[in-house]
Design brief:
The protein contains 13 helices and no strands. It is mostly helical. The protein has a single domain, classed as MetI-like (MetI-like fold).
Length: 335
């Protein structure tokens, strides 16, 4: 009796070949770790709220000229008629000045507040990108190549991590300005642009080393895996192994490190500007505003609390978002 006949004791369902399509229907396609992490983030209410707040500040920075024009203010317009002989504002919050005016100058607080978001985010995002790229490349090379390359890069990492970044930043600003002819020979715009790039350099220089050490440790464990050994065996070039084979497996630590670096850089930019080694006039900056507003706190508290509140909310949102991203990529760290 044939297998396919009605009286057969072995049904068609029992045949391995005919059963394969039915079994395949019940098997779900696997998801990549990145896709799983993104699914977790979409279900995380804290991450959604924090991402919305960060997006709000990013939009403020992008559309700062439009928002200032909508209110009718300008960051460069001095209004001596709106302050008294002692420099105190004679008006508060009005339809023409939504956040009042700046003591001593009469400049519009709202315009300076929205424009102040720009340098903080520009410095933070740019330094994060540069620091991440350098850290990933150095970590990949140290972990995969080993030998003297690993020893040299590891020594450089230890050296960078041992330097005090605050003292380094304070010392570097006058040095760079002297290279450009000295602060006395530079216009305020040239000084401000110089300090902008110095800030990015300092934060990137001190930011890559920690990520490079993490990437190096991950690569040391990955380079003995079967897919890497197979790539070596068939003669795949080193750059291809680094960036096509190893790099996709390092998405989690890279994303986590970048998300946690952003709030630190926002705080660092504000702190350095507050200390006088960051951005200066005519570039508006929240840290610079805080340094000026401390002298007018009792007379005009809103002048101080506007940048303080913005920095606090932005940094807290970035930090909580970074924690959520870390938990999404590594559930073992979930609290």
């Amino acid at each position: 009796m044939s297998i396919g006949s009605p009286g057969s004791t072995v049904g068609v369902e029992d045949h391995p070949a005919s059963a394969e399509p039915e079994r395949a229907k019940g098997v779900a396609h696997g998801k990549s770790p990145t896709r799983i992490a993104m699914d977790r983030l979409r279900k995380d209410k804290v991450a959604i709220v924090c991402a919305s707040i960060v997006l709000f500040f990013v939009l403020i920075a992008i559309f700062a000229p439009l928002l200032a024009k909508l209110e009718g203010g300008n960051i460069a317009d001095f209004n001596p008629k709106l302050i008294d002989e002692f420099g105190f504002p004679t008006i508060g919050v009005t339809p023409d000045h939504w956040f009042g005016v700046e003591p001593r100058t009469g400049r519009d607080n709202f315009a300076r507040w929205v424009f102040g978001a720009r340098p903080s985010l520009q410095v933070a995002f740019t330094a994060t990108v540069f620091g991440t790229v350098v850290g990933v490349v150095m970590g990949l090379m140290a972990g995969f190549l080993g030998g003297w390359v690993d020893r040299v890069i590891s020594w450089v990492i230890d050296f960078v991590l041992s330097l005090p970044y605050l003292l380094f930043a304070i010392a570097l600003v006058p040095i760079v300005e002297s290279w450009r002819g000295g602060s006395m020979n530079l216009t305020p715009e040239q000084q401000s642009s110089t300090r902008f790039f110095v800030l990015i350099f300092v934060l990137s220089f001190f930011g890559w080393a920690g990520l490079a050490r993490i990437i190096r440790g991950e690569v040391l464990s990955l380079r003995e895996r079967e897919f890497v050994l197979a790539a070596k065996a068939i003669g795949v070039s080193t750059p291809r192994i680094l960036f096509r084979e190893l790099l996709p497996n390092l998405v989690a630590p890279i994303v986590i490190s970048a998300s946690l670096a952003l709030p630190a850089y926002v705080t660092a930019e504000a702190g350095l500007s507050f200390l006088g080694v960051g951005l200066i006039e005519p570039t508006p900056s929240w840290g610079q505003t805080i340094a000026t507003a401390t002298n007018w706190f009792q007379a005009d508290p809103i002048y101080l609390w506007l940048p303080v509140g913005a920095i606090t909310i932005l940094v807290l949102s970035l930090a909580l978002l970074g924690d959520s991203i870390r938990d999404a990529f590594d559930p073992k760290t979930r609290r």
